[in-house]
Design a protein that fits this description.
The protein is mainly beta. It has helices at residues 137-141, 153-156; strands at residues 7-10, 13-16, 31-34, 37-40, 51-58, 69-70, 74-80, 82-87, 90-95, 99-102, 108-113, 118-125, 131-132, 164-166. Helix content is 5%, strand content 39%.
């Protein structure tokens, strides 16, 4: 029998303690904010071994991360607002309920657009940690690109401030 992982206060929200099953409302989960928007991973002291899942909230013009491709599949659903998808050197405008599938090694990043925050549900495999951050002129124009290609996350994000615990804010997620 798999036991329930109790929720504990972490930062300004709740996170599971241990590896068991749990239920947490996204508005009550632990949220962090940084150079690449606010987000919750739903994880506590134990990381999900097989599947990563998070909700990210981007302000207009804010990239979600550095433009990259990785060895694992990723999928995304725009929950609210608008964003730009930079993918394989192209730019696409997305709106609420648009779904994006990225097979392994698809180069991509999201950038907030419109006049309000954009919330995106992200789900991805965790079988590998292999990633490449290509030098992309398109991504650089949106503040989401590296100047020189690298496979090292510490290099790609070297100039970023650490994420900080924040309280969930009304307006980040649809009602």
């Amino acid at each position: 029998m798999v036991l329930e992982a109790p929720l504990e206060p972490v930062g300004q929200g709740l996170a599971p303690k241990g590896d068991g099953w749990f239920v947490v409302n996204a508005r009550e989960a632990r949220w962090l904010d940084g150079d690449y928007g606010a987000y919750t991973r739903f994880e506590g002291d134990a990381r999900f071994a097989q599947l990563g899942i998070n909700i990210g909230v981007l302000e207009p013009g804010q990239p979600a991360c550095r433009y990259h491709g990785e060895e694992d599949q990723e999928d995304f659903l725009v929950l609210s607002g608008e964003c730009l998808l930079l993918i394989e050197g192209e730019e696409r405008r997305l709106k609420q309920w648009d779904f994006v599938h990225c097979p392994p090694w698809t180069e991509h990043v999201f950038v907030g657009a419109g006049s309000a925050p954009c919330a995106i549900l992200a789900v991805g495999g965790r079988s590998s940690r292999n990633v490449v951050y290509p030098a992309s002129e398109l991504a650089q124009r949106h503040g989401a690109g590296v100047a020189v290609e690298t496979t090292e996350p510490d290099v790609a994000y070297a100039d970023n401030r650490p994420d900080a615990d924040v309280q969930f804010r009304d307006g980040w997620l649809p009602d």
